[in-house]
């Protein structure tokens, strides 16, 4: 499984700033921190969604935007601190229904907005009955156990989360960890079996019970059981100033740029490091974005490398159907100042900021639960990601 590589300098500065602010405001400083980063919790994915090159947090997801409007950005800079210093392993009967995602509103930071019952939080797409690697931030490492709950089939994300909605699926004691505490990428990890026979929306709730303190941490991750493999949707969406509608591709291209022949670097893919876990489930890096349409065709977009004025991107086109597809078309909008200069293993059409990539003759057919990849290089002023989700259609 690919290990996450996230902007640790920004997070470290944010953590240090939060500690200073806590001292100045007389707030208690927590000694341990962490929550799920795969599947990503609400605060973690909203934090990832909001990251900008300036260090400001400006989420594009509507649920994340509403949470920031209600509680400000301080909770997101402290995404790892959804805690109750005195929980002592207590759950049902102690943490009120409707407040599970905010640690019963007992954290030194106001996470109440992340309890909002709505269906547009960022989501992680998974497959019922599969085994995933569950990653839980070790922002500060301590011994203890992780109690993993999953909502029951039929739960609606538009209703407040209650203890009666949850079933305990596993308890993990002192799992291994990788990476340095106090960084975005450091985390505990273990293989987590998902129940079979599940479909539709779900929520994974994890209570981290420290064995050396009364402090507990609470994590809510929104899921969809639709045949996915850890893809995240609902982040890096179009802003209000951008058109959310992708190009229909019916008008002539304004650019003659195409790239249908393989490049020597066509096999390039995002850099990965060996997993320390025996799990073989795929986990996308937070430096990628993807969509999972109901058709089963989806794509994930990753920045392979970047340099002053440009970058190399890689897009993996996946077929999660039970039967092969024979052709595919992707559409997205580039960030301001981004222009694709060369593309291989796909047929490119550009109209303004609208990008359309279709398969070429040799990679249109994708087998069931298989994928193909194309790559490109682009000039950029720093906006290396699409302004919204990538749409994928297939036949």
Mean pLDDT: 77
**Beginning-to-end CA distance, first to last residue:** 30 Å
Please give the number of β-strands. Answer: 20
| Element pattern in H and E | HEHHHEEEEEEEEEEEEEEEEEEE
The helix-and-strand class reads: mainly beta
Mind describing the biggest β-sheet? 7 strands, mixed
What number of domains? 2
Global outline: globular
Proportion of beta-strand residues: 25-35%
Helix fraction bin: 10-25%
Number of helices: 4
Kindly describe this structure.
The protein is mainly beta. The chain has two domains: 226 residues, Coagulation Factor XIII, Chain A, domain 1 (Distorted Sandwich), CATH 2.70.50; 107 residues, Sandwich (Immunoglobulin-like), CATH 2.60.40.290. Helices cover 10% and strands 32% of the residues. The chain is built from four helices and 20 strands. The strands form four sheets. Strands 2, 3, 5, 6, 9, 10 and 11 form a seven-stranded mixed beta sheet that branches. The protein has a five-stranded antiparallel beta sheet with strand order 12-13-14-19-16, with no helix packed on it. It is globular and about 60 Å long.
């Amino acid at each position: 499984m690919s290990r996450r590589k996230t902007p640790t300098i920004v997070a470290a500065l944010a953590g240090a700033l939060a500690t200073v602010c806590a001292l100045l405001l007389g707030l208690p400083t927590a000694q341990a921190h962490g929550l799920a980063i795969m599947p990503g919790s609400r605060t973690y994915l909203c934090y990832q969604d909001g990251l900008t090159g300036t260090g400001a947090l400006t989420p594009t997801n509507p649920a994340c935007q509403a949470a920031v409007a209600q509680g400000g950005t301080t909770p997101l800079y402290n995404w790892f601190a959804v805690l109750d210093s005195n929980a002592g392993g207590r759950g049902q009967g102690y943490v009120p229904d409707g407040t599970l995602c905010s640690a019963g509103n007992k954290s030194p930071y106001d996470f109440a907005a992340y309890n909002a019952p709505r269906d547009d939080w960022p989501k992680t797409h998974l497959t019922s009955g599969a085994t995933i690697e569950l990653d839980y931030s070790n922002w500060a490492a301590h011994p203890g156990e992780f109690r993993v709950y999953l909502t029951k089939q039929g739960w609606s994300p538009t209703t407040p989360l209650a203890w009666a909605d949850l079933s305990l699926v596993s308890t993990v004691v002192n799992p291994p960890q990788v990476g340095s505490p106090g960084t975005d990428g450091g985390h505990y990890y273990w293989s987590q079996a998902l129940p079979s026979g599940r479909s539709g929306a779900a929520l994974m709730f994890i209570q981290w019970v420290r064995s050396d303190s009364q402090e507990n941490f609470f994590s809510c991750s929104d899921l969809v059981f639709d045949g996915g493999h850890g893809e995240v949707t609902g982040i890096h969406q179009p802003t209000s100033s951008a058109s959310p509608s992708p190009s229909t591709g019916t008008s002539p291209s304004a650019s003659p740029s195409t790239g249908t022949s393989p490049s020597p670097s066509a096999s390039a893919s995002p850099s990965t490091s060996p997993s320390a876990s025996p799990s073989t489930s795929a986990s996308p890096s937070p430096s990628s974005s993807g969509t999972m349409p109901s058709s089963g065709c989806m794509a994930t977009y990753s920045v392979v490398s970047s340099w002053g004025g440009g970058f190399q991107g890689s897009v993996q086109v996946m077929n999660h159907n039970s039967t092969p597809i024979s052709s595919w078309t992707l559409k997205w909008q580039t960030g301001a100042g981004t222009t694709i200069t060369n593309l291989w293993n796909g047929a490119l059409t550009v109209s303004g900021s609208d990008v359309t990539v279709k398969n070429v003759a040799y990679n249109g057919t994708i087998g069931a639960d298989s994928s193909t990849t194309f790559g490109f290089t682009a000039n950029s002023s720093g906006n290396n990601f699409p302004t919204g989700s990538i749409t994928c259609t297939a036949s």
